[in-house]
Amino acid sequence: MIKLLKKEMKLAASPLSYIFIVFGLMAFVPGYPILVSSFFVCLGLFQSFQSAREANDITYTALLPVAKGDIVRAKYAFCIVVELGYFILTSVAVLIRMTLLSEAAVYRNNALMNANLVYLGFVLLILGLFNLIFVGGFFKTAYKFAKPFVAFIVAAFVVVGIGETLFHIPVLSALNAFGFEHIGLQVSVFMVGIASFALLTVVSMHRSIKNFEKIDL
Fold first, then answer.
1. Is 217 a residue whose pLDDT tops 70?
2. pLDDT per residue as tens digits for the range 44-79
3. Which residue among 77, 117, 166, 210 sits deepest, i.e. has the most Cβ atoms within 10 Å of its Cβ?
4. How crowded is the C-beta side of 122, counted as CA atoms within 13 Å?
5. How far apart are CA 121 and CA 190, in angstroms?
């Protein structure tokens, strides 16, 4: 399994998957829908799937003396490694904004989503949806990925739209809290995000293993 993960990271991965991790720093950009940054890291992962397909990576890997289930697990592990790299980077940016920059006028006057724990919860939801919709959709055939990615794009931007809309509702304005204001609510949404990411990823992986086992390569 570890060797398969190394193969994914060194041979199958597109450089864009790693480069797009830096989009985590978009949490510093004022006046921009920062949730979109989570879509870009998923776009980078999509490039890896595209490159791997063109190189017949799945077929090559299936010829190795490894279990088909481990091939799926390695793909998911690679995605999770990249997603966590992005998440850690954007979390650092969020913590800086919640502490050192919490009173900065350029952020206080921002009409769009604020960088706080609620934002991180939404980020995790989008990453979980990528694993469920795109990665899970890919392993239905282990070849076709256009429709799953389009479906993910729709789902991701629906979530972005919801995230950018909810706090404009007066009773939900606390979702856009600055710094450590309404920290209980922030932590609650963040925990829901963690649970969503874990659940969506685990469900998707188990379903993908079953689907991939049925495919005759």
1. no
2. 999 999 998 888 888 888 888 888 999 999 999 999
3. 117
4. 32
5. 4
